[in-house]
Amino acid sequence: MTVTVACERCGRLVPQPLRGFRGRFCSRRCLKAAYAADRRAQRAAKLGPSGVVFPADLVRPGAERQGRGESAVPAPPAPGRAEKVGTESVPSRYHADNSSHLALDQDLYKSRATSVRKKNEADGSSGDDLRQDRRRARFELLDALREWTIFDRVRKCGKIPNGVGGVALRAKDGAAYWSGYCTCGSVWSCPVCAAVILFARAEEIGRIAAAHIEAGGEAWLVSLTARHRLYHALGALFDAVALGWSRLTSGRAWIGDAKRGVPGEKHRLGLVGWVRTLEVTFGFVNGFHPHLHVLLLTDPRKAVGDSAAGLAWAMGRWTKVWQKWMVDLGYEPPSDKRGIDWRKCYTAEEAAGYITKIQEGGGLGNEMARSDMKRGRHKTMAMFEFVEYFTQTGDARFIPVWREYEKVTFGRRSITMSQGLRKLYLGDEPEKTDEELAAQDRGGDLIARVDNATGLKIGSNPRLKAHLLDVFENEGYAGLVHAFAALHLTAEFAPSERALPGEGISCSTESPEDC
Question: What is the mean pLDDT of each run of 10 residues along the chain (515 residues)?
Fold first, then answer.
């Protein structure tokens, strides 16, 4: 006996219905229609991501509370009163009402941020100035996150001395940095550790790509995205995108059939290896947007048959498999144009340039790994850009979104490589974990050392922390001594050409002239 099920859109009885996000449907047409109706309902209700319930005072002005007739615009809070967000108490300096004169619209924020970047480029700011600005911004973003992160290790990162050797200011290749602080090693939640980790990963990827192209291979950068809505939970969407890559690179179509002598897709491409990175952005219109960047390294000389025909066949198969995978999980099918995008990297000179452009933010290594330096497109923001948006606007919608993001990304890997690729191009160079990269000693020269109490005072003030590094890079050793004296900070300075031979300088005076 055949069991039939009624379509939840049109009521038609079908034996094998399509499973959608919120029911079963007879065809893709009904599935898409249901999604469209659900999207309109969600927009009208102004709900947040699934699993995150926004309080009524976070609903956009003009919208009415779902199931109630009262206005969604809250009364202005009394001075010093704390507004309730979920179960958390939010200080009133963070404005839940997006119509507040201090809370900027997301589009306005992005347009202003773009204008500032263009102005800096037009002013001809040097590379050192831009690097110092980015470093100061990372320190300030981490300080803002300490109040809202769910991880204690992020709260301690860059602020609490680790008790090993004391806090020290060091310099290497003209760049100053601090050592002796606790590090969290989180590539997802910490803008400071992410910059250190992703810089190292970008350099490795750039070296691998350059060596591969110089050896006569080809490099393809493939981007894979999924259609997402504001009500989609990040956890399910994150898993769908991550496991979708496993679906593409498994099965007989990819591996082939050795018993029958049928080559697989990877043999037709002449695949040498791949590097996969997973990134997340967010927008208030369509919610979280996890997506993949995959670097495919191929060698036409090793391909079975015509490599061009194999590449064309792979492009078509990937699009079909990717769309079917998303539909089977209950999401809307990605478009043929934006679901999967293929771009080719052509020359060895271009690959070599990827390494030299790392400091400036360009190159394939940065395109693959440096998610901390990227800005969101259209109406989306990169997650650290989202933190910057929160610090400038006080939009309290940031808080539940960020905490959902931290919970989902905890323990997940951002960058993975195919087996054997690293050893092929980097030899026996040991692979370090994210925590090891964040905590490793960079081998810089010791400039000054402070005790734990002074280190805690410096670590608690992100602007002071960045200012002392800038002073040494711009004014040198003498300027740093004067800066410590003017700020009444005690430090033991390492020997220098301005110090007595074999001796350090201890400066804790009231006036810089006394040092």
Answer: 67 66 70 73 49 36 34 35 38 38 45 53 62 91 93 95 89 92 94 91 87 88 90 92 92 89 91 92 90 91 89 92 92 86 70 38 48 55 89 87 94 91 91 91 90 94 94 92 92 65 38 38
Rounded CA separation 8/34 (Å):
9
**For position 101, what pLDDT does the model report?**
33
Task: Give me 430's structure tokens.
Answer: 């040991």
Give burial (CB, 10 Å; 0-12/13-18/19+) of 205: buried
Q: Which domain holds residue 5?
A: 1-45
Question: What is the pLDDT, as a whole number, of residue 49?
Answer: 40
Q: What is the CA radius of gyration of the chain?
A: 27
Is residue 412 in a domain? yes
CA torsion angle for 310, 316, 317, 321 (degrees, to 10)?
160
> What's residue 508's pLDDT?
41
pLDDT (0 to 100) of residue 77: 38
Cα(73)–Cα(62) distance, integer angstroms: 7
Distance of CA 279 to the CA centre of its chain: 6
**307 shares a domain with 280:** yes
pLDDT, residue 60, reads 34
Q: What angle do CA 304, 306, 308 make, to 5 degrees?
A: 120
**Boundary of a domain, candidates 439, 474, 499:** 439
Q: What residue type is 465 in one-letter code?
A: K
Looking at the structure, do residues 348 and 216 belong to the same domain, yes or no? yes
Cα–Cα distance between 383 and 361 in angstroms, integer?
17
Whether residue 320 sits in one domain with residue 464: no
| Residue 88 pLDDT | 41
Euclidean distance between CA atoms 329 and 240, whole angstroms: 7
What is the secondary structure of 205-218 as a DSSP string?
HHHHHHHHHHTT-E
489 inside domain? yes
Q: Which amino acid is at 80?
A: G
Helix (H) or strand (E) holding 327: helix 307-328
Q: Residues 306-312: contacts with CB within 8 Å, 24+ apart? A: 307/268, 307/269, 307/270, 309/268, 310/265, 310/268, 310/269, 310/270, 311/268, 311/269
Distance of CA 175 to the CA centre of its chain: 24
b/e code 268-292 from CB counts within 10 Å (16+ = b): bbbbbbbbbbbbbbbbbebbbbbeb
Query: Phi and psi at residue 21, in whole multiples of 5°?
Result: -65, -30
Q: Are residues 415 and 476 in the same domain?
A: no
Both 147 and 202 in a single domain?
yes
**Residue 195 domain-assigned?**
yes
Burial of 152 (0-12, 13-18, 19+ CB in 10 A): exposed
Three-state DSSP at 64 gives strand
Residue 50 lies in a domain: no
Residue 53 has a pLDDT of 38
427 and 465 in a common domain: no
